Amino acid sequence: MTNVRALKGRDYITLMDYTTDEIKYLLNLSRDLKSRYYQGERYNDILRGRTLLMIFEKPSTRTRVSLDAAATQLGMHVIYSNPQELQLGRGETIADTARVVDRFVDAIAARVYKHESLIEMAKYAVVPVINALSDKEHPLQALADALTLWEVRSRLEGLRIAFVGDGDNNIAHSLMIIGAKLGWEVRIISPRKYWPTKFAELLTEDTRRTGANIMISDNTEDVRGVDAVYTDVWVSMGMETEAEERKKVFRSYQVNAELMRKAGPQAVFMHCLPAHRGEEVTDDVIDGPQSVVWDQAENRLHTAKAVLISLLA
């Protein structure tokens, strides 16, 4: 099993760069940290004296608060900024910004519109760069999703997950990656226009190695028998001009009581949040007995701690 030293100094931009053992290590550490949290060990000084810079181009609740809280509970100092508060907002390049802040801080967490911005930042910064969401992936969320499923299913292997909605968004991509790494069956159920066919092809080597299966379908009947039904907003940040079209296209992919009945009583409901209630999910589902979205949200804290400790301790 991977140890913490193997991860020190790494970037956390995509889970494609992490092995199955490394992901399992992060999940085991997350679970241990959560257990300690509920035993009253919320604070320790393992990262005392370290500084985390958070640069967020997009609004955030869970990612911002969980990272800030995690870093604070580990003894770190957090600096939060948006590009308008930095010289990035006046035209300084990402490369120049990275070169400078790299000398001030111990890690950078960036929430960006374009995944390429993270790649550029990591190219010029020596300190770890953490993906706090991009248009392609959300690996912090995927780790919390996996921890949640482990808790409710008491296993990590052989899980069957149906993602319903926009199959080519960052959450679906990250779910496919971690599923491929851990040997899951991930069913992407989406209108054909939004199929992540090209992205799925990137995971062929992992699925072959772990026995995972990525299935892409436009039929909501394919939720039957899964361990979890997952959805996300139909209109992601930056896609507001497509809002009306997307609402029409995805209307029949709403996660409601009927769809959850198809999935079966064993299926939990998952959502990365925020939810647009009445669109991708109905109130009775997200507030119902099969919903684990609040545990899922809380797990962002414990997995964020695991990432920070592993990259910096």
From TrEMBL:
Question: Under the GO molecular function aspect, what terms does this record hold?
Answer: amino acid binding; ornithine carbamoyltransferase activity
Please list the reactions this protein catalyses: carbamoyl phosphate + L-ornithine = L-citrulline + phosphate + H(+)
Q: Which residues bind L-ornithine?
A: 170, 232, 236-237
- One GO cellular component term noted in the UniProt record for this chain: cytoplasm
Q: Name one Pfam family in it.
A: OTCace_N
- As recorded in UniProt, its EC number(s) are 2.1.3.3
For the keyword Cytoplasm, the answer is: yes
Q: Major location, coarse class? A: cytoplasm
Q: Which GO terms describe its biological process?
A: citrulline biosynthetic process; L-arginine biosynthetic process via ornithine
Arranged from A to Z, the UniProt key words for this protein are:
Cytoplasm, Transferase
What subcellular locations does the record give? Cytoplasm
Tell me which PROSITE patterns the record gives. Answer: CARBAMOYLTRANSFERASE
- Which residues take part in binding carbamoyl phosphate? 60-63, 87, 111, 138-141, 272-273, 300
Is Transferase one of the keywords UniProt gives this record? yes
Q: Where is the Aspartate/ornithine carbamoyltransferase carbamoyl-P binding domain?
A: 10-151
Ranges for domain Aspartate/ornithine carbamoyltransferase Asp/Orn-binding: 157-310
Name the family. Answer: Belongs to the aspartate/ornithine carbamoyltransferase superfamily. OTCase family.
Q: What is this protein called?
A: Ornithine carbamoyltransferase
